[in-house]
Amino acid sequence: MDDDVFNEDKIFEVMLSDPTAGATLGKSKCTIVTILNDDDYQTLITRVANLTSVNLDKLVIGKESWKQQFTEALSVNGGELEEAETMDFVLHFLTFGWKVLFACVPPAHIAGGWLCFTVALMAIAVVTAVIGDMATVLGLLLGIKDSVTAITFVALGTSLPDTFASKVAAINEDTADAAIGNITGSNSVNVFLGLGVPWIIATIYKTLNYESLDKRSKFIITDKSMPFAIALYSIAAIITLLLLTWRRYSTPAGKAELGGNVRIKYISASVCVSLWMIYIVCASLYAYNIIKF
User: Fold this and answer.
1) pTM of structure
2) Which of 139, 157, 163, 286 could form a disulfide with 135 if both were Cys (CB 3.0 to 4.6 A apart)?
3) Regions of the chain where pLDDT drops below 50
């Protein structure tokens, strides 16, 4: 009986007695009947069918969402023109190329998300390279020193993706782990890979092409303002870490690195922005010899 209720195996005894219509009983008047339960097999079959259905649904959803990505990229305000404002049309015009580019990133449903992860990294690398080159060209056109261009336009252009990623993580996650970890991890990549890999390549190239006594064989930082900028950055970083530590153990701050009391939250944000502004201004003034130490 299919009553959607799990039943165990049933064992009962059947006894024959009082025959009629001329029937007679033999030696065996009793037997044991065992009814095996097939719910286990039915459950297994149901699970296999459900998994197959889920996988097929994922493929369908993936195809539809990929198509939907291009539809939203090519449309103003995602196709909802009735709710679109003037700014939506302006932003669509300015970001149309980027929207189409990132619409090419496969949905996370395909290949377990690895294809999306790989293509997204490649797209971010392309965008970062383009923004970095554009920032460098802008600095040259404005006649700004390379060291100032590096800590302003280039730094902003290459760090904005990380900033937005941390913003999304802070909004969507229950904890601050992803937001803070993304920033610290990004800085680690910038320092260890962003400096290490180019220096190794340059060192190998110069070793193979120049003699050891040749001045061109050396890879040296000639900008005298770099040590000051690094020292200033280190001071700002230490102050930021102290701020995060204080928030972690402070009751008024909610004992949390992010969020908490609205007033303290805005004060913390103001401190971080102020440190960045102080770093930019002081490093730029030192690069132009306006301030000296």
Assistant:
1) 0.60
2) 157
3) 1-2, 6, 61, 63
